[in-house]
Amino acid sequence: MKSNKPLSDKRISKFLSLVLRHAPERIDLKLDEAGWANVEELLKKIASKGIKIDFDRLEHVVATNDKKRYAFNEDQTKIRASQGHSIEIDLQLTPQQPPEILYHGTATKNLTSIFEKGLIKGSRQHVHLSEDKETALRVGQRHGKPIILNILAGKMHEAGIEFFLSENKVWLTDSVDRTYIKQQD
To answer: Which fold has domain 9-81?
Structure first.
């Protein structure tokens, strides 16, 4: 990712996503068990890869990220991704009661598999669900022709299935059995 020209906020955010959610070893970054990285260490490790950003730029990227993917601790000495990890971490989230209906955006090409197997987390730690259709639609559009699925979260919760709400307001659960999935009309 070495470059002589300044990186856009979007490119910096993508790089942060890589090292804070999926591959901290790419820059030899250490995350604690809750996914937190020391900000000073992160900036040094990024600089060692030829990427020049300072704390103010990092703070700007975190503050302006439209999906609120990253969060600082209270004194801004640590940073982590809010959710979406493919590496094992404990976000230390407390189980929450979800709304009756949550939404999952996907591509129509995935429907056969979803209605056979349900929603599975794949390489991530959780299945991601949205409280609103607009967010689900944006997610689905990233994968092809989008479709929004209704998830009967209230019924899942009644059956003892846990839900968590990430810092950036994404609902998380381990999986969604196909019996709790309904296609939008």
So the answer is: Arc Repressor Mutant, subunit A (1.10.10)
Q: How confident is the model at residue 89 (pLDDT cuts 50, 70, 90)?
A: confident
- Residue 185's pLDDT is 61
Prediction pTM value: 0.69
Domain boundaries, the chain: 9-81, 95-183
- Residue 19 is predicted with a pLDDT of 95
CB 166 within 8 A of CB 124: no
Given CATH 3.30.499.10, say whether it is the number of domain 95-183: no
